[in-house]
Structure formats: C-alpha cells, structure tokens
Amino acid sequence: MRIVRFAAQDKVKYGILESDIVKVIRGSPFDGFNGSALTFKFEGGTYRLDEVRLLAPCVPSKIVALGLNYRRHAEETKMALPSVPLIFLKPTTAVIGPDDEIVLPRGSSRVDYEGELGVVIGRKAKDIPGDKVNGFILGYTCVNDVTERHIQKADGQWTRAKGYDTFAPIGPWIETDVAPNDLKLETCLNEETRQSARTSDLIFGVAEVVSFISNVMTLLPGDIIATGTPSGIGRMSPGDIVEVKIESIGTLRNSVVAQGQPGEG
Q: Would you state the pLDDT for residue 78?
C-alpha cells in the first residue's frame, strides 16, 4: 500500500495511491495503526495523481539518521567503522518533498547527495527489543541526506552540515508492504547512476537500528529514521536532477538550485 500526503485545492490531506488514483482518507494514517493492522476510512473523494502535488509523506517530529552504516562508505570517507550505530539528528525544517528544490547555501563549497532507505515510525516507541520492531514501523520511504561536506569536516560534528533548509528530501510516499532487508538502492545524478547497493549490506540492519534508537529516545508517529548511505557520494551543482530509487518503494526526484543573494526576489 502506498500512503501519500498531498496538496489539492488549497488543502493538505493523506490518501492511498492506487495506480494513478489518489483515494482520500480521513485524518492521518497514523491514527489507525496499532502495530498489527492499519485501519482508516475513505472520505469518498478521489484525485488523479496529476491533479495533486505530492508532499513529504509525513511530518516527523525528528529525523534520526545513521552515519557510516555501509562499510564501503566508511572506506571512501576514511573513517573508522562504528562499534554501535552512529546517530545524529536533522531538523524538520530541512524536510522537502518530491520535486521540490534542494537549495545550495550561499558560500557552500561542496554539497553532496546521500541516498538512503527511510523507516517511518507508526506509533510511539520506547525501549523496543529487536524482535518487536516490526510492530512499530508503518512503512518505508526514500531519503536524501544532503550534506555540506566541507562544513562537516571543519566542524567535526554534523548538525550544521546536514541541517540546512531543504537538506532532507523525503518521499515520494510511504510503502507499507515491503521487506526492508534486501532492497536495491540507487542514486542517480542527471540520469547517471552514482550509488548502487543493497540494504543487505547495511552494517546495522533496520531492526537493530530502530531498537537501538528507541533505547536512546522516544520515537513518535511519523518520525523518520534514515538508515545510512552507501559508497558513491558526490557533489551536486545548480541545474542537477538527483533521484533516489529504492526497489519496491519508488523514486524520490529533486532539482538543485543555488540560493539567491540577500534581497533578491
């Protein structure tokens, strides 16, 4: 099942995407998720997909991201493998949706794409054992953990480098019916494949990551966990199109623009 969040006729709603038809549901899909089933009621209205604007598929209270969770990515960044999941936070003000613009900040030197599998938390989760994790996951989506690489190295911690507005594209929807442990993940820049891996190559898998994070902080419905990026990271420039493609989920596509000078527009 594909859950979308969309704008139409000056309203923002959730819906279920079937082929190219969006069926509007009442309220939020998180309201009807109990860990073993997802229940909701349709409003009765429908839209064609080309009649709506897809938004980021949920509104997280936080984005918890993983660093160095693919061995080859750690090798290309010349950083030691972590002994436990290396987590950091991205602000919700960084979130954009499919087809929105990634804005390169003024003065930035190198802004990179990082394609990742995103886990969407379905209900409040705290201190969850690994074998119970599935009951707290609503579904999966695509994430681009955009990073200003020079700032990341200069600061020594990652908040500024990964926290700029537009640095967390998410979408295009939440796929509920997918097993996350062996999916092909690709990132394409201007239709050229730059990253290609399978989620079976994750150092810390989805269940371990969700359990670990829930023992640190309470996860709330709609929170996103970005599970880490494979090797092949690279620079984006104004005019580029970057796509994160995950097997059985979909394609998150965003264009890249430069930030205007103060006072412009």
A: 80
Mind listing the pLDDT tens digit for each residue in 165-187? 999 999 999 999 999 999 999 99
Asked whether the beta carbons of 142 and 117 are under 8 A apart, the reply is: yes
Pairing label, strands 42-48, 53-54: unpaired
The token pair that represents 29 in the structure block: 């899909």
d(CA 134, CA 40): 19
Q: Which residue has the higher pLDDT, 71 or 42?
A: 42
- Residue 106 corresponds to which tokens in the numbers above? 């003024």
Q: What is the largest CA-CA distance in the chain?
A: 54
Strand ranges, E, within the chain? 2-8, 11-18, 21-25, 42-48, 53-54, 63-67, 86-90, 95-96, 101-104, 111-113, 115-121, 137-144, 147-148, 168-175, 184-189, 192-198, 224-226, 234-235, 241-246, 250-258
Domains, in order of start, for the chain: 2-54 (2.30.30.370), 63-258 (3.90.850.10)
Helix (H) or strand (E) holding 178: none
Integer Cα distance of 144 and 114 in angstroms: 5
Place of tokens 């802004």: 111
